[in-house]
Amino acid sequence: MAVALVAAGCNSVDPSSLAESGTPVSTSRIPTPSGQYVVQGEILRKYADAGGPSGPLGTPISNELPAPNGGQYSKFQTGVIYWSPRSGAHVLSGAIRAAWEGNGGPDGPLGYPVSDPRPIPGGSVADFEHGTITDTGGQPQIVTR
Predict the structure, then answer these.
(1) Which domain of life is it from (predicted)?
(2) Coil, helix or strand for 69?
(3) Cβ 126 vs Cβ 132: under 8 Å
(4) What is the pTM of this model?
(5) Boundaries of every domain in the chain
(6) Chain-centre distance of CA 104, in angstroms?
(7) Which letter, b or e, does each residue of 37-66 get, where b requires 16 or more Cβ atoms within 10 Å of its Cβ?
(8) Fewer CB within 10 A of the terminal residue: the chain, N end or C end?
(9) Are 144 and 110 contacting, i.e. CB atoms less than 8 angstroms apart?
(10) What is the DSSP secondary structure assignment for residue 5, as one 8-state letter?
(11) How many C-beta neighbours within 10 Å does residue 105 have?
C-alpha cells in the first residue's frame, strides 16, 4: 500500500520524497501559521492516512514528543496521534481523548490506544491495551480489563 506523505503543506506524494527504492521518506517538516513542525515515522504515516493538513486533524501544533515506555506523540489542531512499539500509531480526539488523558493517558490503567475510534450506533468506541472507552454523546464510559 502506498503511503502519501505530507510535504510542504500538501497531502500528496512528492516524487522527491521517495527513496530510490520508492519507499516514502519517514520525516516531513510541515509549515503552519505558527511555524514548522516535524512529523515522522509511523505517526507521519497515520497522519497522511488521515488526510494530512486538509484532513480532520488539521495541522500539527507540536513536534513529536516522548511518551512513556518508548512511545511518541504529536499534537494536531483537533487531536493527537500516539505511537508505541507495542500498539502502533492511533488517532485520538474529542471526548474519548479527554477521558483517556484524564485517566492517566499511556501511564494510566488503560495503557496505549490499540485502535482508532470507530463508529457505533449513537457514538464511537476506541480500544486500549487494557480496556475501552465508549462515547455516546454523554459522559464517556471507561471499561478496564
Answers:
(1) Bacteria
(2) helix
(3) yes
(4) 0.82
(5) 27-144
(6) 17
(7) bebbebbbbbbbebebbebebebbeebbee
(8) N
(9) yes
(10) P
(11) 20
Rg over alpha carbons for the chain, rounded to the nearest Å, is 16
How many CB atoms are located within 10 Å of the residue 103 CB? 17
pLDDT in tens, 39-98: 999 999 999 999 999 999 999 999 999 999 999 999 999 999 999 999 999 999 999 999
Task: Tell me what percent of the residues of the chain surpass a pLDDT of 90.
Answer: 74
141 bridge partner residues: 134
- Among the listed residues 107, 93, 3, the one whose alpha carbon sits nearest the alpha carbon of residue 46: 3
Task: List b or e across 129-140, with b for residues whose CB sees 16 or more CB atoms inside 10 angstroms.
Answer: eebbbbbeeeeb
Q: What is the pLDDT of residues 97-139, one digit of tens each?
A: 999 999 999 999 999 999 999 999 999 999 999 999 999 988 8
Closest CA to 106 of 127, 84, 79, 125: 84
**pLDDT value for 26:** 87
Name the average pLDDT for the chain.
86
